[in-house]
Amino acid sequence: MRIRPATIADAAVLADVHVRTWQATYRGFVPDGYLRSLDPVRWRPFWQDRLRRPEEGTATLALVPDAGDRPVGFVSFGPSRDDAADVAAGEIFAIYVLPEHWGTGGGRMLMAAALTALADAGFGRATLWVLDGNARARRFYEAGGWRPDGLTKRDESRGFPLDEVRYVLDLR
Predict the structure, then answer these.
(1) Which residue among 17, 68, 101, 112 is least packed, with the fewest CB closer than 10 Å?
(2) Rounded Cα gap, residues 151 and 89, in angstroms
(3) What span, in angstroms and rounded, lies between the C-alpha atoms of 119 and 169?
(4) Three-class SS state of 60
(5) pTM, full prediction
(6) What are the N-acetyltransferase domain coordinates in residue numbering (predicted)?
(7) What total number of domains does the chain contain?
(8) What is the mean pLDDT of residues 9-19?
């Protein structure tokens, strides 16, 4: 596996990774009907826009197999979007790897690359938000040194509640 910057040509594949990973990861946490309604074609404009015109300081890296160039995962990151974070904080916005590639080390590679980029950009710490009940993700983050800092939030933007916990990591 290797890491490279995501390009506009990756938009359709990243939309597929995004949707398929959501469907696998969040089964049991969000309504099945919502998961079934997720459509990579509807996510393509989001990814096309994000990759064509990234917000200042943000980036998306793709995880690709050694024998190919079709991404099987991605990480997006940049300055923290969280009102409760200080200006020295970067944020991991999303990290997703297709379920058939879980346990291969790709997620760790993506995280390491993103954290290096955030530290190189001058951020002293990083934050991320994780679904409170997502034990698999929480174990992954905690194995990498991340710790919950006590902040929580409820996201009801999709018509059902998602309780999230903020994790932090010192980059110094």
Answers:
(1) 68
(2) 15
(3) 11
(4) strand
(5) 0.92
(6) 1-172
(7) 1
(8) 96
